[in-house]
Amino acid sequence: MKITEKEFLEAELNTLNLIINNPDFVALAQQVADYLKQYQPDTVIDFGCGTGVYSEVMRQNGFNILAQDIFKSHRDYCKENYPDLKVVARPKDADLMLFIEVAEHMTDEEIKEAIQKINPRLILFSSTPERTDQDEMWGHVNIKQENEWIEMWNELGYNVIDKPQTPTPWALMLEKI
Question: pTM for the complete prediction?
Fold first, then answer.
């Protein structure tokens, strides 16, 4: 059984509490925004923005950000809850790509295509290295360990420049070679 788009959104909102009214999650998003200020990106895309909290916090911190998600229900939620946020359906060019807990839902080929469309100079990447019994239900099709991700990123023309520990302990900051 695979979770539907609407069930995914409901789980993010009601079970995982990934909402703007969750002070702990907003604090995590603020930590990410504070970390990324040092890179001074011209444009940012939050690829697979989900409930849009990272995007909205980044916008509130002065970043020129696009919130992007393939799921219409997520885009609609973001538009309704963050009227000043730019929300898009398809990837667009950006200087920095937030790629947070999305890659596990994509094949390597889909990741490569996204990177080619966005062509970011920098990527804040985080994808769970843990396998669970729930992977299939949650649509997890690509679980890799850090060394495997780093190898793939190197093949795509990116080097690890930092391991920021935010938003997760397995986060990597990548820069185009």
Answer: 0.95
User: Per DSSP, which regions of 69-153 are E strands?
Assistant: 86-88, 96-100, 122-126
Could you give the count of Cα atoms lying within 13 Å of 13 in the half-sphere of its Cβ? 13
Beta strand spans in 127-171 (E) = 158-162
Task: Find, among 60, 68, 74, the residue nearest to 32 by Cα.
Answer: 60
Q: What is the pLDDT of residues 115-131, one digit of tens each?
A: 999 999 999 999 988 88
Cα–Cα distance, 152 to 144 (Å, whole number)? 10
Q: Are 46 and 68 in contact (CB under 8 A)?
A: yes
Residues 90 and 113: their CA atoms lie apart, in Å, by 12
Residue at 11: amino acid letter: A
Q: What sign does the CA torsion over 30, 124, 163, 42 have?
A: negative
> Measured between alpha carbons, how far is residue 156 from residues 18, 36, 93, 113, 160 in Å?
30, 22, 16, 11, 12
Q: Distance of alpha carbon 51 from its chain centroid, rounded?
A: 11
pLDDT value of residue 1: 53
CA distance 35 to 172: 12
